Task: structure prediction
Amino acid sequence: MSIRDNTTLWLQKHTQNGPRAIKQFTSGGFIFAAGMMAIIFADKLIISSLEQELVALGGLILVITGAALALWGYLSMSLFKILIHLLKRRT
Result:
């Protein structure tokens, strides 16, 4: 098998479950929002201390995790399907 065929199979495997991709996208969005709220909470309501920094760090970790999860869900819903059509061999 060529790299093109392997890539197409990999993309097809990751785009077959549409509801899972939507769930990943929305879950990632909510996790991202929770992280942003934690960062804003730490900035506005907690006085400067180690506790403030730890809450902000936890929020940052949530933001990164949520963004990655939402991105993966979005790519599974859209971009991967476009790539499958571009990479498929015309017969």
About this structure: The mean pLDDT is 89.
